[in-house]
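Form 7-S
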Amino acid sequence: MAFVLKHQTVAEFMQRFWLLTRDLFNAGSGQTGAQRRTYMTEYARHIWWIAKRIQAGDITNTQARNSYNAAFGKSLTAAQWTTLVDTRFKPARDRYQAMLDEGALE
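Output:
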């Protein structure tokens, strides 16, 4: 299914996406037990979703990096972005995919 936006550009959507993703991570980091799992599972779902959109060609890797930079006031290069993706985002995405594969999510 194509990624279609009616009332915002991809850049506007992606900036909002990254801010919400950051808020989920920060909220989960301040919790323990079930509350932490809930926030961190939702964070991982966001990372999984964006990876799927990049894989489907709905969003380019460059668009994801540029919107991340805009949302966080960063200026990551392509190499730095790849490191971030490989060390932070891929593990979260893989954990979420494993939960889906195991039927651990409703």
